[in-house]
C-alpha cells in the first residue's frame, strides 16, 4: 500500500496495484484495450479503478456517450501514477545487481533536436540512464513533463511554466534565410523595411512565430507565399524560390543559402524544464548534462 495525500480532504492508503492499473486505463481511456495490456479481465480492471475512486472519494472518469473522459481529479491521479511508476522503475533498477537504471525521457521539438540537442545525444547515451526521445511542440513537451510522460523538456516556455522548474539554456535571435544569390544575401543585417514587397514563407496563422513576424513587419507590405511548419520544409521552399523565411539563428543552413541577422525581433530563451520538485534522479542527471554541455560549447 502507498501512503499519499491527494488534497487537504484526503490522506490515506492508496493501493499501488490499482494506481498502476489506472495509469494504463488513463492512457487508453478504454477498458478493453487497457485490460488486454494488463493481462486481466475487464471486470477485474473495473473493480481496481472503482476501488481507487472510492478510496480517494473522487470521480476519476465520466462517460460521454461511448467515450470515456478523465475528470480533472482523474488527470491529477494519472499524472501521479505515471510519476510513481517512473520512480519505482528507477528504484528497482538502482537496487538491481547490474546497476541498470530506469529510462529517462526527453521531449522537445524536431528543430531543437536537430540543431541544439543532437550534439549532446552521444554523451547522454553513454550515461547511466537509457535515453528515450519524444518529438513534440514546445507546449506539448511542457505538458508531457507536467503529466510525467516525459522527465525533461527543452523549448521556449513563455507563459507556460506552471508546475515546471525551468532553467535558461540558450538565448536565440532570428535570421532571414535567402538563396545565396538573393538581392539581400550580401547584407550584414536586415530590418523590416528591407522586406518590402518580399514573398515570405511563414508558419500557419496563430502560430507564435507567425504572430511575432506580423507584429515586427506591421508597417511593411509583404506577401504570404507559403505556410509551413519546420525549419527543413521552410528551407526547401526557399530553395524552390517560393520566398524567403525567418527562423531561429541556431539552424545550420545547407550550401546555397545565407542566414542574415534579422533585427527587430525579441530574443527568445530556450529552457530546460523538469517537473517542479521532481525527485527523479534521471531527470536531474539529464538536466545537468544539457546545461553543462551548453556551458562547455560557449
Summarize it:
With 298 residues, this protein is of the alpha/beta class.
Describe this structure in words.
39% of the residues lie in helices and 25% in strands. It has 298 residues and is an alpha/beta fold. The protein folds into three domains: 2-91, Winged helix-like DNA-binding domain superfamily/Winged helix DNA-binding domain (Arc Repressor Mutant, subunit A), CATH 1.10.10; 101-168 and 274-297, D-Maltodextrin-Binding Protein, domain 2; 174-266, Periplasmic binding protein-like II (D-Maltodextrin-Binding Protein, domain 2). The protein has a five-stranded mixed beta sheet, with helices on both faces. β3 and β4 (67-70) form a beta hairpin. It is elongated, with a radius of gyration of 24 Å. Keywords: DNA-binding, Transcription, Transcription regulation. InterPro entries: LysR_HTH_N (IPR000847), LysR_subst-bd (IPR005119), WH-like_DNA-bd_sf (IPR036388), WH_DNA-bd_sf (IPR036390). GO terms for molecular function: DNA binding; DNA-binding transcription factor activity. It holds the Pfam family HTH_1.
Q: Unreliable stretches, pLDDT < 50, 5 or more residues?
A: 1-11
Q: Provide the helix percentage.
A: 25-40%
Strand content: 25-35%
- Number of self-contained structural domains: 3
CATH class identity of the largest domain: Alpha Beta
Shape designation: elongated
By CATH, the superfamily of the largest domain comes out as Periplasmic binding protein-like II
Let me know the average pLDDT. Answer: 86
Strand order of the largest sheet: 6-5-7-14-8
The biggest sheet amounts to: 5 strands, mixed
Intertermini distance? 49 Å
Question: What is the C-alpha radius of gyration, as a whole number of Å?
Answer: 24 Å
Q: How does the helix and strand content classify structurally?
A: alpha/beta
Question: What oligomeric state best describes the polypeptide chains here?
Answer: single chain
Amino acid at each position: 500500500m502507498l501512503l499519499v495525500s491527494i488534497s487537504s480532504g484526503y490522506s490515506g492508503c492508496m493501493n499501488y496495484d490499482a494506481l498502476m492499473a489506472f495509469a494504463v486505463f488513463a492512457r487508453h481511456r478504454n477498458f478493453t484495450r487497457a485490460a488486454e495490456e494488463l493481462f486481466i479481465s475487464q471486470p477485474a480492471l473495473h473493480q481496481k479503478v472503482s476501488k481507487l475512486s472510492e478510496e480517494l472519494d473522487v470521480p476519476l472518469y465520466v462517460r460521454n456517450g461511448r467515450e470515456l473522459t478523465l475528470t480533472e481529479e482523474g488527470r491529477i491521479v494519472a499524472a501521479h501514477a505515471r510519476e510513481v511508476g517512473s520512480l519505482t522503475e528507477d528504484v528497482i533498477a538502482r537496487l538491481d545487481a547490474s546497476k541498470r537504471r530506469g529510462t529517462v525521457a526527453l521531449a522537445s521539438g524536431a528543430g531543437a533536436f536537430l540543431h541544439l540537442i543532437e550534439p549532446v545525444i552521444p554523451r547522454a547515451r553513454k550515461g547511466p540512464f537509457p535515453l528515450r526521445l519524444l518529438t513534440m511542440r514546445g507546449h506539448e513537451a511542457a505538458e508531457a513533463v507536467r503529466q510525467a510522460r516525459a522527465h525533461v523538456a527543452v523549448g521556449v516556455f513563455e507563459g507556460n511554466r506552471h508546475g515546471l522548474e525551468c532553467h535558461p539554456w540558450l538565448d536565440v535571435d532570428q535570421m532571414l534565410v535567402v538563396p545565396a544569390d538573393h538581392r539581400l544575401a550580401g547584407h550584414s543585417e536586415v530590418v523590416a523595411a528591407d522586406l518590402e514587397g518580399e514573398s515570405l514563407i511563414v508558419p500557419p496563422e496563430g502560430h507564435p512565430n507567425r504572430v511575432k513576424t506580423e507584429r515586427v513587419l506591421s508597417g511593411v507590405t509583404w506577401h504570404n507565399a507559403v505556410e509551413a511548419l519546420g525549419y527543413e520544409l521552410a528551407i526547401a521552399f526557399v530553395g524552390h524560390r517560393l520566398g524567403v523565411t525567418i527562423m531561429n539563428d541556431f539552424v545550420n543552413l545547407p550550401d546555397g543559402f545565407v542566414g542574415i541577422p534579422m533585427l527587430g525581433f525579441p530574443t527568445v530563451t530556450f529552457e530546460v524544464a523538469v517537473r517542479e520538485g521532481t525527485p527523479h534522479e534521471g531527470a536531474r542527471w539529464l538536466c545537468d548534462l544539457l546545461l553543462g554541455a551548453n556551458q562547455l560549447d560557449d
